[in-house]
# Entry
Amino acid sequence: MRIEAYTQVQQIYNASKIDKSRRNVKANASETDRLEISGTGRDYQIAKQAVAAAADVREDVTAPLKKSIQAGTYEVSVGKFADKLLQRMEEMR
# Structure
C-alpha cells in the first residue's frame, strides 16, 4: 500500500475544506437576507385579515329565519324556489 498517495489525497481534501470555509465566511460577512413583498402580496394579506375579522354568520339575516323555522311558521314558496333554481342554472351555463 502506498502511504504517499493517501497523504496527498488527505492534503488536497484539507485544502479544499479550508477554501470552502473561507468562502462561507466571506459570503456570510458581505450578504444580508432581505424580504420584499409585492403590492399584490400586501393586498392579499390585507384582504385575508379583513376576512378573518368578519363574522362567519350574519346573525341579522339568519336570526329571523331560525326563529320562524323553530316556531314552525317558515314556508317555502314553490314558485320562488323554481325561479331561483332556473336562474342559477342559467348562470352556470
Summary: Residues 79 and 85 are 10 Å apart (CA to CA). The mean pLDDT is 80. The chain is about 75% helix and 0% strand.
